[in-house]
Specification:
globular, Aminopeptidase, 31% strand, 4 helices
Length: 167
């Protein structure tokens, strides 16, 4: 489990419970960028959801801290289904004011480091179909459409996969 990793002026570390409000606010700012008509209210209590992610024994939430402020987030956990050596990247966000500054790339590298240390062989994620910026980022990192989870008509998300072995 990554406790702290320093990369230049940035610190990548595990989020602590007391930071749940900052995490929830960053998540809201990032999500708002790919919903042109506003973020739909699906009834999710995002503060509670983030708190649960932070406290999960089978998962981890990493953050990038720059200038004393959380500017990037990644939440992941083990996949419950077979194969058990797969990790599910549940959330990955960079504060929109910090896009194109290398934060996402550094955070992704920290995730890869952790997943390989945990002996994961693959990672999966779901990305919003309208979020072209995120799709391009994931493609640059080597993610590809998951052949085991092809899109269905009406899906609002694309399923991607990253092979972690042999790298």
């Amino acid at each position: 489990m990554i406790v702290e990793r320093v990369t230049g002026s940035r610190v990548i570390r595990t989020v602590v419970r007391a930071e749940v409000d900052a995490v929830t606010a960053l998540h809201a700012r990032a999500r708002a960028t790919y919903y042109p008509d506003g973020v739909p209210d699906d009834g999710t209590d995002w503060r509670a959801a983030w708190l649960a992610a932070i406290e999960r024994p089978d998962g981890q939430v990493l953050c990038v801290v720059e200038g004393g402020r959380i500017v990037g987030l990644a939440s992941f956990r083990a996949v419950r289904a077979v194969p058990a050596d797969t990790v599910d990247l549940r959330q990955f966000h960079v504060d929109p004011g910090h896009w194109r500054s290398g934060i996402g790339t550094a955070l992704h590298a920290a995730c890869l480091e952790q997943w390989r240390a945990d002996r994961r062989r693959a990672a999966v994620l779901s990305v919003h179909a309208g979020n072209r910026r995120a799709q391009a980022f994931y493609a640059r990192q080597g993610w590809v459409p998951d052949p085991e989870r092809p899109p269905r008509e009406g899906d609002h998300h694309l399923m991607l996969r990253l092979d972690l072995h042999g790298e």
